């Protein structure tokens, strides 16, 4: 003896129900994937800016604390920022540009130097994400202070 539920209707999904479910999943993916990619890029961008500012601020403070001149070097080919042995790798698809005093640069590296009395050689660091969002981080030569100015390339 066979038993059917629902007055003769077998259990399962109809083709229409499956197509509707697939369409809904497709729409959700079309909306969420670009948003997730933008979110990931935004996280990378903020982290890169934070690393640059932290490295520069740390160099200034260590120079004041230790009474020694300290250099922050920028390797534009490898997107690496270094303070002594501490190196920060920026994402490869980010553009990094540096304007520094020519007399402190060496070995193809851009250098921003911090002096024990709080001043610096000064300079600008431009960091641009693949989407054109970016920031100019300026190091004041007189006081060694940091400032940042965001920009968007249309």
TrEMBL record:
Superkingdom of source: Bacteria
Xref: SUPFAM superfamilies: Pili subunits (SSF54523)
Transmembrane regions listed in the UniProt entry: 18-40
Alphabetical list of InterPro entries matching this protein: N_methyl_site (IPR012902), Pilin-like (IPR045584)
Entry keyword Chaperone: no
Pfam family, any one: N_methyl
Alphabetical UniProt keywords: Membrane, Transmembrane, Transmembrane helix
Signal peptide positions on this chain: none
Coiled coil (UniProt feature): none
NCBIfam families: IV_pilin_GFxxxE
Protein name: Type II secretion system protein
């Amino acid at each position: 003896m066979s038993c059917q539920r629902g007055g003769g209707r077998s259990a399962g999904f109809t083709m229409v129900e499956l197509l509707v479910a697939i369409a809904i999943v497709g729409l959700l993916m079309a909306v969420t994937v670009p948003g997730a990619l933008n979110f990931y890029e935004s996280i990378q961008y903020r982290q890169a800016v934070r690393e640059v500012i932290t490295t520069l601020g740390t160099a200034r403070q260590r120079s004041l604390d230790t009474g020694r001149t300290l250099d922050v070097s920028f390797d534009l080919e490898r997107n690496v920022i270094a303070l002594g042995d501490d190196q920060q790798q920026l994402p490869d698809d980010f553009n990094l540009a540096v304007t520094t005093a020519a007399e402190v640069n060496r070995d193809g590296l851009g250098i921003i130097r911090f002096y024990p009395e709080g001043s610096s050689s000064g300079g600008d660091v431009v960091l641009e994400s693949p989407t054109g969002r970016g920031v100019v981080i300026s190091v004041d030569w007189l006081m060694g202070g940091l400032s940042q100015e965001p920009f968007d390339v249309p």
